[in-house]
């Protein structure tokens, strides 16, 4: 099998020479406006991907079309915040493992949701106006049957009406409840005015909020860099089997950080990304909540 060869160029004219000398396909990556590629695509038969220098599989591009259409719809509706199921779909498109979920608009669809997701389940409010769902009583966990699911929906409606009157209720996210024994970590990102897309990692709860124990990188990143990010934080010991707890799957977390970095890097409209929490286990790590704020 042929090895991939990476060639750095600082001049567009060299591309023509390379395309003649090297066996195709060639994948060319450039941090800039993809419009510059178009000209080269037609002249040199390059494929155009606005993507990082690691691999650019074609199906990845198809999935990124889904991301583009979700973002375009939110923008068309003037929404800065993606809805919960839209955020989950973005993660899914980038291959980030997550808890199975199903969006329902109201109680009438609980049978279908239970069939898709199973029990135990979690129900969450989906509203363009609510940012922190549990602060307004918008998350109920540990639902074990259909009647509790129905009750949970009424309870969430009541809580939201009391705690954030006037908030629009788009529907509810029914999610598989993940088992105990995991550690909650956060994978975030902001589009910095100087560095552009950046990615952040930290442990959930007080570690990020109070101790600001986080690590940052400029996106995109490799798996090795993501592992460095995990090993850089002071609270990493909690992931390594602290006081008899099982060690958590750093490779699975690193994989999520790499993909999240790619997601914010490739989609300029994303201003902020907060995957919080990702629940990390001895084997595997899964996102259960994500918030995306767009530049409108
Ligand atoms: N699918 C799930 N399985 C297990 N625990 C969950 C699940 N979804 C949420 N939780 C727990 O509930 C908390 C709040 O839910 P989350 O969706 O993060 O809402 P928000 O951050 O908007 O309040 C999470 O931090 C996590 O502890
Ligand atoms: Mg959350």
Counting DSSP H or I runs of 4 or more residues, the number of helices is 9
DSSP strand count = 10
Q: Tell me the strand percentage band.
A: 15-25%
CATH topology of the largest domain: D-amino Acid Aminotransferase, Chain A, domain 1
What ligand molecules are bound, each kind once? Answer: adenosine-5'-diphosphate, magnesium ion
Q: Measured on Cα atoms, how large is the radius of gyration?
A: 21 Å
Q: How much helical structure, as a percent, in the residues?
A: 25-40%
Largest sheet: 6 strands, antiparallel
Cα end-to-end separation: 46 Å
CATH superfamily of the largest domain: ATP-grasp fold, B domain
Q: What is the annotated CATH architecture of the largest domain? A: 2-Layer Sandwich
- Derived structural class: alpha+beta
Mass-distribution shape: globular
As residue ranges, the low-confidence spans are 33-46, 51-56
List the helices and strands and how they pair.
Layout: H1 13-21, H2 35-44, H3 58-76, H4 84-93, E1 101-104, H5 110-117, E2 121-126, E3 139-143, H6 146-163, E4 171-176, E5 183-192, E6 196-203, H7 206-209, E7 214-218, H8 223-232, H9 250-266, E8 270-280, E9 285-287, E10 290-294
Antiparallel strand pairs: 1-4, 2-3, 2-4, 5-6, 5-8, 6-7, 8-9, 8-10
Helix pairs in contact: 3-4, 8-9
Bound molecules: adenosine-5'-diphosphate and magnesium ion.
